[in-house]
Design goal:
273 residues, alpha+beta, N-terminal domain of MutM-like DNA repair proteins, Helicase, Ruva Protein, domain 3, 4-stranded antiparallel beta sheet, 21% strand
Length: 273
C-alpha cells in the first residue's frame, strides 16, 4: 500500500507536468473505485487548470485556478499516477486520464480499485475525509509532547497508536516498524505507559524515517513505482520490516514477527522494550 513517502514522491513527480496547464478533457473508463467517480467530473475539469497541488495525509489535493474547486485523489492499496506525453493506449485497470493542451496526460491505474477520485467546490481541508485527520508528522504541530498528551490513559499498543490517522497522519505499517526500532520501543507496549522522553525519541525517529524514505523515493516491496516508473529505494534501508527471523542489525539476535491488527510487525526483543 502506498504510504506517506510514496504519496509525497508521486505528488512531486506529477506536479511538474500538470500545474498551470489547460485541461482539454477528462476520460473515465471505469468510475467504480472505492467511491464512484462523480458523473460530472468531465465538465468540472474541462478548460480548467490546476494552480497548486499538495498532500494531506495520503490524499493528493489538486486545486483548480480561480477557486473553482479541488480534486481529491487517494491511491488506495495499489493505485498509481503517471504523467507522460507518450503513454500507450489504455489497457485494463487504467481507469482515467486527464489530458492537457500541451499533449501531456495524467493517468490513474489501480488493479485493486480501492483508490478514489472525488471533487469539492469548498475548502478541501473541510472535506469529510480530511477534516478529522491528525497533524502532519513533518509539520510544526508534531512532536513528542503532542504524542505524550494524546497517549495518556490509552491502552492501545504504541504501533497501533501512531498508525491512527486521527492521532498523526501517514505513519503506515512499514515506517511505524522502522521508527519504533529506531526509538527502541517494543510495538506491543501500551501507549499510555510510555514516558515523555521516549515519545520525544519516537517523534524524532518518525520524522527521520519519513524524510529518509522520501529522499529515497519511497519503498518498493512488490510493484510500487513513482510517476516516472522508477522504484523506491528505501527498501535497502529497512532494519526490521519484512525481516522477521533474520538477525538484528544492532545485536545480531533473531528478529521476532507477530501480527497486530492483521498487519506484519517485526521487532527485536533485545533492543526494543
Amino acid at each position: 500500500m502506498p504510504e506517506l513517502p510514496e504519496v509525497e514522491t508521486t505528488l512531486k513527480g506529477i506536479s511538474r507536468g500538470i500545474l498551470h496547464k489547460k485541461i482539454t478533457s477528462f476520460v473515465c473508463r471505469d468510475k467504480k473505485l472505492r467511491w464512484p467517480i462523480p458523473a460530472d467530473m468531465s465538465s468540472f475539469l474541462k478548460n480548467q487548470s490546476f494552480e497548486s497541488a499538495y498532500r494531506r495525509g495520503k490524499y493528493i489535493i489538486l486545486n483548480l485556478a480561480n477557486k473553482k474547486g479541488s480534486v481529491l485523489i487517494h491511491l488506495g492499496m495499489s493505485g498509481k499516477l503517471r504523467i507522460s506525453k507518450k503513454l500507450n493506449p489504455p489497457v485494463k485497470h487504467e481507469h482515467w486520464d486527464i489530458n492537457f493542451t500541451d499533449g501531456w496526460t495524467l493517468r490513474y491505474t489501480d488493479i485493486r480499485k480501492f483508490g478514489a477520485m472525488l471533487k469539492t467546490r469548498k475548502d478541501p481541508n473541510d472535506h469529510k475525509l480530511i477534516k478529522n485527520l491528525g497533524p502532519e508528522p513533518l509539520g510544526n504541530n508534531f512532536n513528542g509532547d503532542y504524542l505524550f498528551k494524546k497517549s495518556r490513559k490509552k491502552s492501545l499498543p504504541i504501533k497501533n497508536f501512531i498508525m491512527d490517522s486521527k492521532i498523526v497522519v501517514g505513519v503506515g505499517n512499514i515506517y511505524a516498524n522502522e521508527a519504533l526500532f529506531m526509538a527502541g520501543i517494543r510495538p506491543t507496549k501500551k501507549s499510555g505507559l510510555i514516558s515523555k522522553v521516549k515519545f520525544e525519541e519516537l517523534s524524532h525517529a518518525i520524522i527521520i524515517t519519513l524524510r529518509e524514505a522520501i529522499e529515497a523515493g519511497g519503498t518498493t516491496l512488490k510493484d510500487y513505482t513513482n510517476a516516472e516508473e522508477a522504484p523506491g529505494y528505501f527498501k535497502k534501508e529497512l532494519k526490521v520490516y519484512d525481516r522477521g527471523g533474520e538477525n538484528c542489525v544492532r545485536c545480531n539476535k533473531k528478529l521476532k514477527e507477530i501480527r497486530q491488527a492483521n498487519r506484519q510487525t517485526v521487532y527485536c526483543s533485545t533492543c526494543q522494550n
